[in-house]
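pls read this protein.

:::
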Amino acid sequence: MQSRTYLRIEGDLVSLVSEVVDREVTLPDLLAELSQSHLVITPRLPAGCRLWLRSGTTGRQVFVVEQAPGRRTIEYHASTRVGADPVTYRVALPYVVFVVATYGEQVEGLATFFRTEPIASLDAALLCSTLPNTSDDGNVCLGSVRVSGASVGERVDALLAAFWSSRFNSDLRRHPLPFTGGFRAWASRSRHDPLAALTLAYDPYWRTLRQVVAQMAGIAPTDLPAAPTAPEADAQTEVRTPEPEPTEGGEDDDDLAA
């Protein structure tokens, strides 16, 4: 911090001016700093988007969408016989996590996983999805799905809607259910409790959410932000309630109990 005193002449008026300078930088340094300051506007994010990554290295974007537990109707065509009809099941699902990778304006990949609680951090553990047309690695077979939208976020919304409304089949071996009986048993367990899927023991996936996001973005997991450090627990504070002061003319406990 510096102080300066100088004379300022304005027409016939002369002023003695004192000023304090907090900081001085050169004009080129100021212009360089201003050129680095800019406002970043996020794209229109998909519904339920919990995390969004845009890689300046690979040009990819990754959206992590979490959908709440509940019952969904899926159409499953298990038979390969010609003319066989698909069967509709109403099944309870846990938290369903979708990881969508895009490049430019196009969807590049889709993976899905289960969780029994909401995502709390980028290092969240994942569970294997038991949905049809999903590989053991979580990758979803998109087939000939084509989606449109005015933005990438709208196209991701349309992609997930197309996933749920598609006619699932047995072309891709899905991860096994945590019980026997297939989809019929799944629907039976789901009939009376929309949250029944939260109590099932799904197989853990071998990668964390951080690793999946990094792989779909084409970068190293260490290039992603570090997980925030959990704050230390606050020291416990003893709270004492003051004894009530006696009121003149009041009754004591013995009088009230009589």
Remarks:
- Helices lie at 27-36, 152-165, 182-190, 209-217, 253-257.
- The CA atoms of residues 49 and 250 lie 62 Å apart.
